[in-house]
Amino acid sequence: MKKRINIDGAQNVEVSKPIPCEKSPHEQLEIMEAYTKAHMDSEEMDKARREINCLKVIFPTMFRSIEEGDLLAGRLDYLPIGFGSVTSIGGVGHYCVFHKLRAFKELLTTEEEKKRVDILYDYWQEHDTKSIYCRDILTEDTVGRFIDCTYPLMATARLSGMMLNYKRLMKYGLEGLKELLHSGESNEFLECSYESICLLQEVIEQQIYLVCKAKAGADQARRKDLSLMEEDLRYIKENKPATFHQALQLFWIYALCAGVINYGRMDDVLGPFLQNDLDSGVIDEDEAYRYLKSLWKMIENRRTTVNGRIIVGGAGRDNPKEGDTFARICLRVCKDTRYVEPQFTLRFNQDTPKDIMDMAYDCIGSGATYPTLYNDDVNIPAVMYAMRVEEKIAEQYVPFGCGEFVIQGKSVGTPNILINLLKILNITLNSGIDPMDGVRKCGPVEIPNCSEFQTFDQLYDKYKELLDYYLDLSIEAQYHSYKVMNDQASFLFTSILMDDCIGRGKSVLDGGIEILGGTNETYGNINSSDALWAIKKLVYMDKKYTLPQLHEAQLANFEGYERIQKDLLKQDKYGNDHEECDELANDLYEFVAKGNRQRGIDYGMGYFLIVISNNQTNTDWGRETSASLDGRKTGVYLNPANSPQGGASTSGPTACLNSLSKFNAKYHGGSVQNIKFTPRMFNKDREKIKLMFDTYFKKGGCQLMVTVVDHGILEDAQNNPQNYPDLIVRVAGYSAVFVNLTKDIQEELLSRTLYD
Amino acid sequence: MIKVTNIERFATHDGPGIRTAVFLKGCPLYCPWCANPETQTLHPELLYTKRKCTGCHMCENNCPSKAIHFDQQGVFHYDRTLCTNCRECERNCLYDAIEFQGNDMELAAIMKEVLKDKDYYDNSGGGITISGGEPFVQLDGLISILEASKEKGLDTAVETTGNYSLESLKRAEPYIDHYLYDFKHLDDQVLKEFTGGNGPLIKANLNYLLEHNAQKVFVRMPIIPGFNYEEELIKNTLDYLKQLGAERVNLLPYHTLGKEKYERMGKTYELSGTMLREEDLEEFHQYALGLGLESKIGG
Question: Model ipTM?
């Protein structure tokens, strides 16, 4: 059933508060009008031409002034209307973020100006990329927009997680790229790409102007920094970078224009420049530290909440020694800054130098929540299978956002689908109707009354049948998102640095990308398997209750059925190394993961994988998910990512890690494991903790995200937020300042087991 | 069947490496600072948490032997002598206000749990630690766990008071890699008075172990205000241990983390001293190092 869509409303997770636009509301309105006019005027043109025409409106105009202390040039604002790749900054393709446009309208003072906003609003209702997509895909009952948690499936259009091939940028420089774009047979995409680089050079020209402007009134030391910035901007405008600072500057300005918010293996890109400068005495480590600290601040100031990945270490680097030099300085910066972004990530394997691992543990032990740890020994073979790529390619895997993998410079892997496994289980138990709102959400699947499930397998099979239906919807919706985005835009800046768009003369979603992948975020995995285990045990093994009895209690949100709820809660739970319960969790995982992956293959995609990595959607979706037979009440958060439900892990960290390591990584495209220690345990028992992690990784653990926080601190921060401005916690696939989170997300974090 | 209080995985203070600690029930001593008072008896202990109790009387109503009642002020009363350990009260409490500590476990069940972390032991030089209570109280059970552990190639440690016959010690000795041996007081009379411990026996057993296997022994000295927290006494004790042939000592600062359990068991916690910080023991740690002992503050 197709749906009349609601285009208004939040469309991404936004915890960090964005920095307000530097331009006046009046100026902003004029820019948005100019953008809209360029879009209208280009209607008959090729999408690439239309895109460059629109980009010329926002670049370089939307760049902000240089700020005190900046050692790199490039700060960019975005408006409710514009061009982008992701929802975290602006929107996708030619976009309008309607609720932000409405909020913007309130900033205007005259009725005349407000009317002008209304005209824009009306135009974009028909032209916003995501709205076009939503009109095609959303239904009344099964598929909602991201974020509308009343549905079992949410879909969105975005080009998240693009990690560009910056080595190519460094190798060719801007003039070299232009030559490359003009070297073969021409077409409109290549021509417009060429013009994009020219536009980037204009941006650099404007940055030179801004840097010079900043010199006025600056003291001598600051003038020296600004002079370096000016010189290097002039240099990179025409030449490929020769120094670390130039390379850093070129990378940064390019990333801003491309609208990408995850950066990737910067150690392998920038390490050689750094090492060369250090060896030749151009800079010392302290100077490099200053530059990187400035980069950290620029990334933090973009406030993309769940993104900003910088990845260091691991196999498959061209320059491991130089990369490690870069990594060491980053670790110092990360520990000192305590920002929630960049999401600093360490890939490691047997060859990772011991001092880097020690620095990483020190950084985590300081409460920074970084680096997040990725085990190459498990992930590389897993990616080879999951994405069906050879080892050389798999070695370039990078986690973005909340932990989805892509291949740097080679694959698209945006998670445009989110699926709630627990809601689907509750619908299966309730004859196809969601107990939350009484709406039938089972599509064509016939679901009998739960009293008819004579065996556990009958129930489980029916659940799987409904899951299959939702997985079919998932692949259709993911695939269609690419079609719609491709109809609207070429994503020029992204395409130029993605293999092999230039060689093929095609934009990223038009056949240019080597690996067209995608991901499906799964939620409530563990609640579902715990609920299934409780049903299996209490109804079909022990025969203590009938399924209708449990279902009746569930529908009543266990009110008046506390005894049943207690029995449900007392059953073995995932996260405690209980064999049968974990096996069921694994069986459900494999069913969903393999089914999802096979659908990608059948659709001719490079890959379509589940990711068990969540932002805060486990809490948001929990609010709209009815009581479940793991003993969870209506509205309570779902389990975070791949970790147990809060409070369910009671057998110590090794038991929890044993459960976590049971899922074979080769079926998913990234999963997130969170674990929380007190500073006492993490720092005083450090050697034992290290050995524990080491064992977990050897047993097949793919990844770990560690929060170190003391007893009572989170509770105190809830009551006295003013005292904890930099208390950072790992939510799931991202970190946040605890006091910026909403109350129920804080509660979810508190519910997690704290090992001491 | 072996009477077990609980099994704790990733126990970090009970011997080298990553270990699983199996706490057995029963102890001949009754140290007033004991952090695990529920382990002292052999029978299961009922622990009642007042703040969790809603006063619904489900425990009282479901107790077949009338061992539980609430008085007119709503205060919970439990008569151990009437209790048959049927645990109906625990099962019927929806709020987890009642909890029994102590289970009869088969050796196989214990070993199944312990072996789950074998990879961690192997990677860290850890293993199993049998603690209590005093594990030698259930000597046959203790030996069966030790034998089974050795069969599986596990490193074994025993946390012990030393308060049993030398003959018992000799039976278990072939299977034990580390002794975490409590030494609480130099003065036999004071020890007897406070804890019921048999000083001469404890000293004799320690002497035996140090003579035969000194490198296996970690002597643990709990430092308790009002009992042994005196400079001269502690130093004399360290001198004594050195003389006896000890190589390693652990100075354990007094803590009150088990205090709430006394209340939950309906017992009185008799000590009133404040918790010690690690720095309070620094002087003695330095003294021990000066004697050539391998010393550590904490377990």
Answer: 0.93
